[in-house]
Amino acid sequence: MFASLLLSAAVLAAGPADDAGAVPDGASPAERPNVLLILADDLGVEALGCYGGVSYETPNLDRLAAGGRRFEFCFSNPLCSPSRAELLTGREPLHNGIRRVIYDPKNHREFLDPAREQSVGNLFRDAGYATAAAGKWQLSFLTERDTPAGLGFERSQFWPIQIDGARTSRYAEPSFWGDRPDGTRGGWSVPGGYGPDGYNAFVRGQIDRAQAAGQPFFIYYAMLLPHFPWEPTPGSEDPLKRTASLASSDHGDMKYFPDMVAYMDRLVGRTLDHLERTGALENTVVVFLGDNGCQQGIISERRIDGPHGPRTVTVNGGKGTLTDAGTHVPLIISWPGTIPAGVDDGLVEFSDVLPTLADLCDLPTPRNPINGVSFADRLGVPGMPERPDRDWVHIQDKAQRQVRSRTHMLNERGQFRPVVPPGSKPAPPLSEPLSPELQAERDRLAAALKAVETFDGP
């Protein structure tokens, strides 16, 4: 199992790493590490055991965290399309144009435009990497604007939200869009199949393709799980059934959510095992995140440390809200033998991932100004340039915007409130007059909110 290699990363925590893991300046593609960027769908920190979650089984991700770097305070946008666009471009929704969820082709004409935006896929492809992407796109309607190649992904397979105006199934008897086995591109369905299994097989196949060609790879694995509809997974006592995935009247049964989280974890383990069997794991940077918090109505238990010792709190999923329950997501980064095991308690937002990977892999500077700040120097990898640490993150849903520090939040309406412990109800806005210390914090966050709005480059 891949845990054998992760132990070597844990050993590094006992002493300094040497220069063998650093990427040399001007490195050729063959000298650069592979990158596997995994994004789960609707997964807050409370769902993983490594973050204190006690409601679900996540042994593979827990082992990944134990051998790598776990980030305590990573924040996304509260819904999928804005988070995905920010992750891939390093740019806030205000600047990349994706401020809401893309799901209705009749009313939503937004898409992540390759003519205007440059993605992390473009950077890796132009640096000589084999690039691929799979799972959930939701940055364009693929049957109308098949944009992954323009954004740097040489090969891709995604779940199409609709085909010929009909909603499709992402799980049982799934529909696919992208590179078919026969070399053509378009849509198809797999009667008797299970969507997440198909995308996982595609990802493993792209690892093999890159290795056969002698190229490093960058793979964006945007998992479908554990987003609704909540349905049985393979191996369940209940039969799989085909469900239109965006049917608002039927989100399935929440009783299947634990099995879907467990199956998501199993697919991560399957991919990591494949990396180990092919000899690629030790030279692969694995990044795992959730795109936003768990769906509202999902109730989870989480064990946290408090001033009087550990305690268990109940967390109600907050997807779609600017609360921590909607935006506080897991971030785990592993590079066995190079990144020492540990926990980072600094602030991170999704725009930071692109510049961090660019530093780790010696990629060229993006052509567009990015909002992200690299945290590669916090990973313990030798030779990484020092960057300023964040003291706030920006979160957006349509016109709603918020900046959050470790202690306070300020939104676009001027509401200023304290951050509350996990499982607590949001605090009411603080009333005027504020103490000098609180007024200084509010002023600092107001300046940050304005800075994001007016940003045009560093």
UniProtKB/TrEMBL annotation:
Compositionally biased residues, Pro residues: 419-431
Sulfatase N-terminal domain residues: 33-362
UniProt-annotated stretches for the region Disordered: 412-437
The enzyme's E.C. designation: 3.1.6.1
PROSITE patterns listed in its UniProt record: SULFATASE_1 (PS00523)
One of the record's GO molecular function terms: metal ion binding
InterPro entries named in the record: Alkaline_phosphatase_core_sf, Sulfatase, Sulfatase_CS, Sulfatase_N
Protein family according to the UniProt entry: Belongs to the sulfatase family.
Name of the molecule in the record: Arylsulfatase
Organism: Alienimonas californiensis
Organism phylogeny: Bacteria, Pseudomonadati, Planctomycetota, Planctomycetia, Planctomycetales
Gene that produces this protein: atsA_39
